[in-house]
């Protein structure tokens, strides 16, 4: 089967019991802006970063049996040092050192990794719902 042509990432979604709190975190931390979204049978907030990256925050279904996120897990996933091999979303930040310092000043537990062989710096942390987040000082080359 041949790969489809013209594919691009449309959005990433996060389910939350408090989408307003989560939206505020992404707006304040990364500079997302809230954009208009269609009406659904549940609350949704759509956020946009730059010209083409969207984050959809979706009200958690109260009837679901799945745990809400890593904070409800019994494993060590709650420690950001486990995120380099765990589920996370990554953002390039041009002001990496200042950005990471601001996270720490907000009391966010950050795990930093410096890969000298690739001249790459990474920092891993959790959003308020326990979703894994990474920031890096390297922008992907296309």
Question: What's the arrangement of secondary structure elements?
Answer:
Blueprint: E1 12-16, H1 19-30, E2 33-35, E3 44-49, E4 53-59, E5 89-92, H2 96-105, E6 111-115, E7 120-126, E8 132-136
Pfam family, one: Glyoxalase
GO molecular function: lactoylglutathione lyase activity
InterPro entries: Glyas_Bleomycin-R_OHBP_Dase (IPR029068), Glyas_Fos-R_dOase_dom (IPR004360), VOC_core (IPR037523)
Describe the protein's architecture and organization:
The protein has 142 residues and is α/β, with parallel strands linked by helices. It has helices at residues 19-30, 96-105; strands spanning 12-16, 33-35, 44-49, 53-59, 89-92, 111-115, 120-126, 132-136. The protein has 2 domains: 8-60, 2,3-Dihydroxybiphenyl 1,2-Dioxygenase, domain 1 (Roll), CATH 3.10.180.10; 75-142, 2,3-Dihydroxybiphenyl 1,2-Dioxygenase, domain 1, CATH 3.10.180. The protein is built from 2 helices and 8 strands, in the order E-H-E-E-E-E-H-E-E-E. The strands form 2 sheets. It has a 4-stranded mixed beta sheet, covered by helices on one side. A 4-stranded mixed beta sheet has the order 5-8-7-6, with no helix packed on it. Strand 3 and strand 4 form a beta hairpin. The relative contact order is 0.18. Residues 8-138 form the VOC domain. It comes from Handroanthus impetiginosus.
Instruction: Tell me the count of domains.
Output: 2
Q: Could you spell the SSE succession in H and E letters?
A: EHEEEEHEEE
Largest β-sheet summary: 4 strands, mixed
The order of strands across the largest sheet is 1-4-3-2
Q: Can you give the helix content as a percent range? A: 10-25%
């Amino acid at each position: 089967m041949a790969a489809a042509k013209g594919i691009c990432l449309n959005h990433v979604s996060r389910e939350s019991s408090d989408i307003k709190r989560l939206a505020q975190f992404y707006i304040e931390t990364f500079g997302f802006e809230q954009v208009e979204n269609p009406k659904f049978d549940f609350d949704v907030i759509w956020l946009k970063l730059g010209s083409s990256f969207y984050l959809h925050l979706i009200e958690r279904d109260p009837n679901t049996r799945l745990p809400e996120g890593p904070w409800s897990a019994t494993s060590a996933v709650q420690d950001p040092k486990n995120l380099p091999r765990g589920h996370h979303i990554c953002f390039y930040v041009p002001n990496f050192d200042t950005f990471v310092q601001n996270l720490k000043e907000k009391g966010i537990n950050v795990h930093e990794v410096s890969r000298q062989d690739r001249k790459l710096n990474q920092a891993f942390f959790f959003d308020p719902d326990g979703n894994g987040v990474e920031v890096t000082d390297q922008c992907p080359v296309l």
